[in-house]
Amino acid sequence: MSRKVTDPIRDLKKFIREETKVIRERDPAIHSDAEVFLYPSFHAIFWYRLAHRLYQKGYYFPARLISQLTARKTGIEIHPGAKIGKGLFIDHGHGVVIGETSEIGDNVTLYQGVTLGGTGKEKGKRHPTLGDNVMVSAGAKVLGSFEVGENSKIGAGSVVIQPVPPNSTVVGVPGHVVERKDHSAPQTKLQHEDLPDPLETEIENLKAENAELRSMIDEIKKKLEERDA
Q: Quick check: pTM over 0.85?
């Protein structure tokens, strides 16, 4: 009898300790443990864990009720059917949507406005799978049933609709890989200022090709002038 009473209390204490550690590690704006209770991420994930248990046991209506009430309170909508590992951190969080068949690994970070969604009304697995240590920046949309490999980063505003290899950086609409590393490195910050700009890279390549062509044309003109002189 005492075990049934103390288990939820022990689970709650463990959850609070773990979430406090996650939030303090990833948000420099926090100054005390007490502030953790003010974070929408804390409440959204806590109620998701409860709703997910109910969902697994077939109590779909109460699970969805908890999910919807939490979404109204926090601005973060997590379907109770989603599978989420340890250490998820949702920074700010307003507008985050995590679909029913989404799967999220350990130590994942999502920023505000992120959507892990489907691409239509298909059945079965229709939402993305995020590997460990993935970071998805503000406003990014990851749509469809595919995997984002571990240690990858999705740039702000990107729309990702195809698989992402591990250790990659993805930007753009549609999103595409602009950088890959040959080693794994858990992400603690996105470093927006260091993200490659594929459009700028293409422009620079065109400028270089144009300069080369101009040089060739000038050389041809010079030879023609020398011949006609």
A: no
